[in-house]
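Late entry, written up from scratch paper. The run itself happened at the end of the previous shift, but nothing got recorded in the book at the time, so transcribing now.
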Amino acid sequence: MERKIDSVLEEWKASNDGKALIITGCRQIGKTYSVREFGKTYDSFIELNLEDNRSLRELFKGDLSADSFLDRLSFIPGTDIVDGNTLLFIDEIQSCKEAISSLKPLAQSKRIHVIASGSLLGIRLKGRKSESADEGEDRLSPKGYTRTVRMHSMDFEEFLWAMGVSKNVTRNIAECIREEKPLDGFTLEKTEDLFRRYLLVGGMPQAVQMYADSLDYGKVMNSLDWIRSVLYEDITRYTLGLNPLLIRTCLESVPSQLAKENRRFEYRDVEMVANKGAREYGPSIEWLKSAGIVDACYSLNEPKMPLNINENRSLFKLYLSDTGLLALFLGPEASSMVMKDVLSNNGAFMENAVSCALIRSGYVPRYFATKDGRLEVDFVISDGRRTIALEVKSGKKKGSKSLLKLRDSNYGVSKLVKICEGNVEYDTNGTLHLPLFAPCFFEQPKQIELGEIDYIDDLNRRY
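Output as recorded:
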């Protein structure tokens, strides 16, 4: 199955910038498969899985200079190092802190290209420093010699490709969304149907492949259940001193927290126990975020740019990073959501889907609510030039008083968007209506262009 990470890998190889590539992301999203396929573009591909073969960790003991390490590596039978055209893939690197430290000297040498990956790597990179007092600096930090890319499970467009939809079709859908043009009725209807199926299957490659091959949702659920067991195993094994049961409890509370009217994650609702808050649950939530299992959507004090300095991190919503996992946690009833009339009344599910889509499109979703609760907007994003407010309406009622109140305020929101059933159109209030799947095709935010400088010579001539 084709993945968008493929183009990222190709761009990294072509740049030859002397940096190792670190790929983080949730378990079972296809990191290893994508790197193996990419390895076929090199004369030599070497894979070291430090979890499956723990003896390989000995390679990283002692002198970590590139030449010394590659000398040790060359003793492994079948290893062929072609200077300048070898890809070394260190998988599950989080299980060996010395391996993380080796990325800097290996990247500096430029004899080989290096990719590191690990499902819990985000946790390790945020973890404690080296436990050896005589090591001095934090050996976990390869400082300036790495590029980190977060990989996600398959987005809706990748799902469409896997189901056999051509790129001509997805390009047309993306063009209509980005240029704010209505889709033809047939394409809209069929894309909506496929989107509902995607919500339930999710983007885990194993589940997507299972559905593409069999169209049997029961087999998909079995596959997702196995993935959940793998996540639970990680919670038990890689807790960095935290209580694994508490991490799991926080994870399992996410669906019920989203079912509330305001969707906000509240510590008191995790175990229904009083006098427990951020101190008890905060580290567990950070673990889940670092593992790529959940995404946090923080509240804004004001929906004004720059949004990051207006964040209120004490108030947030938690969304699962894959809608298939959310469907699994919701249980057998979730399968009925493929039916249009049921799905259209499930706002929490749709909000989770929009959060996933925005993040995969390169945005940082936040939300805004006034203290009196009279104005609440599901998502506020920035494309670097303007602030955009989005309201998700999955039910029959398409009104959105909050967007209109926001428009009439002095917050400076530039664009109002309603994500709802139906086609692309503007209403009489100037609000842009987009189909439920539209955020999956949003254009990536672009850096602001500063423009050319054509006056330096004129400036110098004046003096």
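Residues 128-138 have pLDDT under 50 and may be disordered.
(Scratch paper discarded after transcription.)
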